[in-house]
Amino acid sequence: MENRIELKTTINASADKVWDAITNPDKIEQYLFGSRIETDWKPGSKSNFYIEQDEKQITIVKGEVIRNIPGKLLEHTLFPAGTKLNDSPENYIVITYEIEEHGEETDLTITQKGYKYVEDGLQRYIDTQKGWKVALPKLKEVAEG
To answer: How confident is the model at residue 24 (pLDDT cuts 50, 70, 90)?
Structure first.
């Protein structure tokens, strides 16, 4: 198992549209399995993903914003809420979105790291790879739409 997952894709859209796709709760919901995020994207703020079920918000992933350079870079932590894993800082994965515009196209690099050091790292690594295989093409479609 590698300690990190790195995904790269080129999107036929401006950096602003790609940024909107990764930060706008309405857009995130379209490609990230119906989940929405609640955050102001300021460093130190919570970045919790939730789904609506029986008219209640159920947090499915918890996190905190680390860095935010609008239109360029976004970094936050991830922890699967509602699991038996110990909810401690050493069990959070770090995800980074890097955006680089080239004319009418934008390169998006998504990196998730920390799998060797977190509880149940191998399974989380496998689940993340499977999830992005489905979500990344949809993210691209949403940004290009």
So the answer is: very high
